[in-house]
Here is the input.
Amino acid sequence: MHQDSILAAKNAWQEAEAILVGAGAGMGVDSGLPDFRGKSGFWKAYPPLAKMGIEFEEMANPYWFTQNPSLAWGFYGHRLNLYQKTKPHRGFNILLNKFKEENIPMFVFTSNVDSHFQKTGFEENQIMECHGSLMHFQCIEECGQPIWPIGPDLLLQINPDNLLAKEPLPSCPQCGSLARPNILMFSDFAWNSTRTYAQRQRFEKWIEKFKNKNLLIIELGAGTNIPTVRLTCEEVYQSAGNHFIRVNPGESECGLKNTLSLPMGAKDAIKAISQNY
Ligand SMILES: [Zn+2]
Here is the structure.
């Protein structure tokens, strides 16, 4: 590990007057969540799908909610259960403390759909979830029911042998039709983007407000596979940021000037950067 980079990152952390946190899959991996990227990782997590030869891109498709609702909810319900049962790691709390105890304004831009920032105690109005949220549902009939949050105790019963969810499946509180997660899937023309759009507007306002301050961008575990978080962090750094720290065990390189690369996990990096000694 480059001690110089850690030291520089510590300084940036201490001097920051506002912090944008960019979080990708690597942030969740440190809480013990699986990384579904890559065929082998995905099929290891879902043996019944391996048997059927269904890949992630094929499964993460709204098609299944009309074609085979029990399988669609078996797949998403399994993840939902996992997110509900998993406790966000200590790195989340360290970030929250920086915001709450030290009063450093903070905004989170994440591609994760697990709501773990909310679960830690971050407020709804300081988070943008660019791929939506698995902890929010929408009606597949688009009956006019606004997106609704799920209860903290909701768990689905899923048969591990065939990945089929047991009835009753989640349904719309207004019309009783099948519900689906409010996350952006592949070939997803029915995704209700109103919630994420409102988040984006708050995000843009926040950047506007703090662009003349000492703004630190810290990017955590965001990969190049689906690069939305990386590109957003780079863009904010170039237009409004003072410091940029990219944390990623395997892909920490950055082509921009005066950035800091920490080739390590998200939790360890947050712990290292936030220590005062
Ligand atoms: Zn409905």
